[in-house]
Structure formats: structure tokens, C-alpha cells
Amino acid sequence: MLDLLRRTVKTIRPAYRTLSRIRGIRLHEPTISIASAVYLGSSYGGWQVDVSGLNSDSIVYSAGVGDDISFDLALIDTIGCRVYAPDPTPNAIEWIKRQNVPSEFQFIPIGLSGSEGILDFHVPARKDLDCFSRTPVAGAKLTGVVQCPVTTIPQLMRQLNHDHIDLLKMDIEGFEYEVLDQMLCAGVRPMQIAVEFHHLQYGHSAQQTIGAVEGLKRAGYGLHWVSDRGNEYGFVLRSQLF
Question: Where does the Methyltransferase FkbM domain lie (predicted)?
Fold first, then answer.
């Protein structure tokens, strides 16, 4: 019921902000301030990033396309960099086919996970929803499962012949916890990370987000942004600030 209510009020920002605070969803506040950080994209699909740390040669991974690439397009328009956008879900694949995207935007029909393989994704009954997930939302109507290929960040980097990532953005419906854990264990340190944590959704607890944030801090990241909604976070490697 809470998941249904959360989705219903998601588009009403003040009401959703109030609900988030009442339910304790906003778990953190920023610990550092970056003057050059700007918000790019729509109110729904946008993120705040430090543009001073990016240029036309930057490598950006934007995982979780759905049906909103306003952030990616704004980043390309502002910085001129190439954006690699993995998303394995059928809705995203079909939606991208209908878009006139710039050459700097490279869609990759594969998902991110903590390991490689083929996974079952639950399919939402509503055609306009893009929340395909491994664990179904409580109370949500589903129409079955679809099998999608997934890979790890280090393996995707090898596939694309990249030795680093300047910005990693993830909105991947609960997979972020295992992806971050595997990535950090593998020694991969993107210069910036923008991630939506799905605590209190898909069976994930608030403690998992707290643990993930602590892990990122131990890995050298500073938290510079938390959205009004309390689920989207922006991190930057502290070593890049000096």
C-alpha cells in the first residue's frame, strides 16, 4: 500500500517530500558543498552533478533509461561528452528506437548487476511504467517476467575498452546495492556517482542504504547532494576536489 501511495504522489513534489520526511525515507543530508554542481534534466529524471569535473572527453555511464533521457541530453548539450546508457528492459529498448538521439548517446541493451548472467525481471501491468525489477513491488499488478541480460560494471568497462569512469549514474530499481558493492570490491572508482537508492522498495531496508553510503564514504567519496525526495544521491571522490 505504501509503495502504491508513494507512486501516486511522486509527481506532486511538495506532498511527496512531506511523505518522505514523515516516513523517514530521507536518511542523509549532504556533507560537502560543491559550488560548480548544477541540476541537469527534468524534475523527474534529472540529477545534480559537478560539471567542472567533466569535459568532452569524459566517460559517462547512465544506467536505467526508462523513458526519460533528459539528463543525458542536457549533459551532452552542456559538456559535449559521450554517454553510454545500459538498460535491458523491453519498454526502454522500444522507447529508444522511437527517439532521435544524438550520436554522443550510445544505448546498450544490457542491465547492471553484481554478477553476469540472465535474470528474471518482473513486468509491470501498466504499459506506461518502466519499473522492471527483480523483486516485485508490494501490491503492484504484474503480467509475468521477462529474461534480461545483466553484467557488472568492470565487465562492461572491459567490453567498451574503458579504463575509468568519470560519472556513473544509476536508477536501476534496487540493483544499485549489489552493483556498488561489487564495483568497489573490484577497485573501480568513478570520479562521480549519481544514484537512486530504493530503500523501503523491492524489499530493501533503510539500513541497506545507510550501509551503502558508509561504504562509499570509506572508499573516499563525499556526499554533495540529496534530492528533495530523499532517494537520489550525488557523490564525488574527495581526491578530485583538491
Answer: 77-205
| 13-23 vs 2-9: helix crossing angle, rounded to 10 | 150
Residues of the chain with pLDDT under 70: 1-24, 125-143, 242
Residue 119 lies inside a defined structural domain of this protein: no
pLDDT in tens, 16-56: 344 444 344 789 999 999 999 999 999 999 999 999 999 99
DSSP the chain: -HHHHHHHHTTSHHHHHHHHHHHT------SS--TTEEEES-TTT-EEEEGGG--TT-EEEEE--TT--HHHHHHHHHH--EEEEE---HHHHHHHHTS---TTEEEE--EE-SS-EEEEEEEESSTT----BSSPPTT--EEEEEEEEEE-HHHHHHHHT-S--SEEEE--TTTHHHHHHHHHHTT---SEEEEE--TTSTT--HHHHHHHHHHHHHTTEEEEEE-TTS-EEEEEEGGGG-
- Confirm whether 84 is domain-assigned: yes
Domain range for 61 is 2-108+153-241
Predicted local confidence at residue 153, as pLDDT: 99
Whole-model pTM: value is: 0.86
CATH code at position 193: 3.40.50.150
Say if 198 falls within a structural domain.
yes
How many domains does one find in the chain? 1
